[in-house]
Amino acid sequence: LHTFHIFAIRTKDRSSLASYLKGEGIQTSVRYPVPMHLQPALEYLQYHEGDFPQAEAWARENLSLPMYPELTQEQVEYVCDKIEGWVRTR
Question: Where do the structural domains in the chain lie, given as residue ranges?
Answer without folding.
Answer: 7-88
